[in-house]
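Subject: Sanity check before I submit

Could someone independently write out the structure tokens for this chain? I want to compare against mine line by line before I put it in a report. The sequence has 176 residues.
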Amino acid sequence: MKKNSIIFVILFLIVAAGSYAFVQKYYFVSPQPVEGPEFLKDESKPEETITVQAFFNNNMLDPEFTCTKVFPVERVIPKTQAVGRAALEELLKGPTGPEKEESFSTSINPGVKIQSLVIENGVAKVDFDEQLEFQVGGSCRVSAIRAQITETLKQFPTVKTVVISINGRTEDILQP
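---
Independent answer below. Compare away.
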């Protein structure tokens, strides 16, 4: 009888230990992350992208700094119907770190905002806030600003000419 009791206790301990390991493994250990249902996925992240160009000055490509010569850099952005505005937004961000290392620079003040952009019959009319001309002086800088904006918009086949305005004014803006 004593021998049967010892065997019973040993078997009981083995079963209990195995049960404990099973419970630990399947009930108390954090589950591995799994992919959630399709309806829980974040649909706000665009999957498609497009490439636009922003035009900047570059003293290595234009050592004479002729004021109106600007050069394109490519930016990959989320796909949008408003490609003209998106390209201008990339221009207003200025050159990236790597682009600066390649001697790209901007003549446009930081913090400039686009108030509106309308493209009709080959004419792009873009209106900026007053930051565009804040403390801007010199005919070279004014020409460089105009060239950056104009060439950035003229990359699109629907744009033949560009009209720049500030708070709706076109006549007395960006004066040297």
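---
OP: Matches mine. For the report I'm noting this point. The two ends are 111 Å apart (CA to CA).
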